[in-house]
Amino acid sequence: MSTILTLGKLNPIQCHFPHKSPYVQQLESMNKLVDVLENKQNVLLESPTGTGKTKTILCSVLPWCMKNNKKLLVVTRTHDQVEQFIRSIHETNYTPKVCVLASKSRTCIHPDKNSFPNPEDGCRESIQCKNCSSYTHIKKLIPKNSTIDDIEVPIEPSNSIFDLEDIVKKSSEKDLCPYFVTKTMVSKSDIICCPYNYLVDPAIFKQTNIKLEDCVVVIDEAHNVENLSRTVIHFEETLGVSFKKMINDLSHWMTDKIIGKIATFFHLFLTNFSTFVNSLEIEPKKFRKKTDDSPDEYQIEKDMLVKFLKEALKISNEKYMSEFDENVEHLNNFIMEHEKALNRKGAANNNPFSKKKRFNTNILKWIQSLQKTMSFMKMNKYSNLRDFKYVVRQPPIRKHMKKESNNRSIHIWNMNSSLGFLHIKEMVRSLIFLSGTLHPFESIESEMDLKFEVKMRLDHVIDMHKQMKAIAVSTYNGEKMDSKMGNRQNQKYFDQLFNLIFDICSNTKEGVIVFFPSFSFMKLCFDNWKYDRNVDKLKNIKSLFVETQGAHHNDFIKMLKEYRSVCKTKRGACMFGVQRGKLSEGIDLNDECSRAVVAIGIPYPNMKEKEISLKMKYNDEKHKKYSEYLSGFDYVKKEAFRSLNQSLGRCIRHINDYGMIYLVDCRFSDRNNKNCISPWLGSHVSFNNHATVSFVRKECDKFFSMNKESEKEHIEIAYENESIENDRPSKKIKI
Prior knowledge:
The longest helix has 32 residues, at 318-349. The protein has 3 domains: 1-96 and 190-230 and 418-461, P-loop containing nucleotide triphosphate hydrolases (Rossmann fold, 3-Layer(aba) Sandwich); 240-407, no CATH class; 468-607 and 643-733, 3-Layer(aba) Sandwich (Rossmann fold). Helix 13 packs antiparallel against helix 14 and helix 16 packs antiparallel against helix 17 (361-377). The protein is built from 29 helices and 24 strands. By secondary structure, it is an alpha/beta fold.
């Protein structure tokens, strides 16, 4: 049953809501969002998981945009979250024209795509060889003296709205390239959906054909944007075998009539660059453990920095920089035309040219990557140079090490998150930052150099006194719960940490999720527990699942599916994951999958790591000048607690869900740390300094007996590529 709502005070509009009535929190935010758009303002909206953020946007921002003929750009963290957003549109009464932008790896339908070394190069070569019928058919549709925007693609969605799977399927039926089909849809769409990097990375954004003028941009899971906007400008390359090969390859083209002058230009540039980097005297660590593989480092600063910028990059020489940019463009055009010619001749002779005849395209990629970073360094009359830090790294020199593995690497790190948003914030009508963990708001405003006229922080929709129980455990069985580095040789700590997890699992039916602060700490715990066969004890009461570092996406999804299935059994399961890992964000583990969430420690980054320490120093300097800027330590603390808060959000996924949260570390009792927990949860955390097994048993019995009636109405969430199997009555929703 849908409801018609009148939203907004300035210029009210009527909107359809797909349920009987919205939550009070939803209604409040929808009214505010309509007025925000009327006033061309920016908004920060922090709303806990399970409070219907997606429906809030779809039933306020979307109808306003459609009524006022404005384009809506929705960016999320992953392609999977884009698909979730599209599915939510189907539940509303709106049928906007939707365009989903995706990479060639997700859209390519070429029969030989699995044999491509990489999607980009494979696509380019197939097009140049005229060996891609789906691209050829797209090209034929472009009217004379027109662009790809003018194409009317002869495909229709299966269910009124295109999702990416639908675009690929329908395009394939017509033998039209899905990647270029999406490009034809950009100018004609009401909504454009894509992952963050399509917006934040200028090189990728340039290829999207998106016009940001007067556009409304919604950034979901916006707590990730600060870091991405900063790091997308980084330049990090190793001057190893492939780099030396690039210089050598350029030398062979220096006498070429067409490209010789440009090859000479870049050969000299790369040679000078390499000479400077390798001339730096890097002092090896005086005391290095045999297990220490961390690199020796040299920070380029003061006189050496001036020399690097003037002699190696020549960034202050405007005439040289202009020639550099022109030569990059000429090189790009040459490679395209050269490969076309090679492919034509190779096809005619039925004999492909040898690799020596081809231009090394890695040269162009390397130079373009550096060019992107330098373009930000040059902005505002080179005032942005102070936002960058420069570090040279060298692997530790050891006996019997191969010479080529001793190559140095150059790292140019951007410290200013606002630089990645320069091409965005001046053009758009409104920016809407949306997440369950935006706290503290001041950090986003200062780091992004953005003004948010409206800031909303919504409470949870559940009954926090009945459906949620959060406990901070400072000691267990008399042992201090301290996960800091200095306590990681304390065997008693690991023993009691295991006992706490074991006791929670023993007294919690269905699923328990345990989050560690890092993969290295999780390994340390398991190494300790296996020694005393503690892991075997846990296996006797729960099926165990462990998040693996660097696991393939398909393997991760397969593990989640099995975990969900086992959680429904009488035995239940325990999943071990890592804060900041795949399990901690964007994963729906509702109902029986997360009856308890245990967060061990606070996931501080390694503050001795060079990039982190330089960012902290940068923020300290900013903080002295501008009080709204977080100091270096407060910055990394904010990052750590946002990751923690994201992990805690796995516990409650919808209005009828319930579960217990355990914050396991003595530092949570510190007043300053209490204030860093998400506001919707922080005031409901109880602190216990003397927890024991009897305490855990008592709290679990009390909480779960109070929520026993909730099991009568079970809610299933539909997961992508997974069928729902259940042996009890339920209703289905999508979040």
